[in-house]
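Researcher: Please predict.
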Amino acid sequence: MAEDKNKTHDVVELSVEDKLRALYRLQKVNSEIDKIRTLRGELPLEVQDLEDEIAGLETRIEKLQEELKTIDQSISVKKNEIINAQALIAKYEEQQKNVRNNREFDSLSKEIEYQRLEIELCEKRIREFTAQSKDKTEIINESKKSLTERSNDLKDKKSELDEIVTETQKEEEDMLNERKEIEQMIEERLLTAYKKIRKNARNGLAVVTVERDACGGCFNQIPPQRQLDIRSRKKIIVCEYCGRILVDEEILES
């Protein structure tokens, strides 16, 4: 029973030729996936950047509008203070008509002068608040204009991206499924090596064919005897210059 149990975990060992064929198929599938994603280009990143910029503009506008609201409230407070000061001046001037001595008259005059200074100070603060309100309103209007422009840009970019995704999604899904199937055929050690080469290689090419007696990746010349070894498919051979796995052009045809 123990022997049967162990057999169920046995992995079918591929020949070197089959391993090379699987690796080259995997490379071709990965290259097709790369083409699809290159077709989308920087659009996903551009969409994300625009979404972040729009969120920032919306937050900025909201904050400025809150500040503008606070400024308007401050202006209203100062206007009310002016009304109260004017009412006190009128009251004190009326009281001056009925004073009994100079001391009372002078005291009321000081109160009137104090209220007039308060009015001048309030008017100064209102001018300052009004200037701040004007500046913030201009910034809000500019930000709203930018928000509209960026929102339109985002709409266009999303539409463009959606169109490309719609055209390529099914194809990419098929390719991803095929890649998964091929990867399951390749032993983990070899697959890890392939992924490492692909990650560091130009254009993601980890497996290349010999073209015109040269490596299809770095284009350095390959000696005739090494080309014979590659065509024999008896061992996995890598380019001594770039480290890519080398296969012959007919590997998928036989």
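Model: Helices lie at 2-7, 16-40, 43-96, 102-185, 188-200, 224-232.
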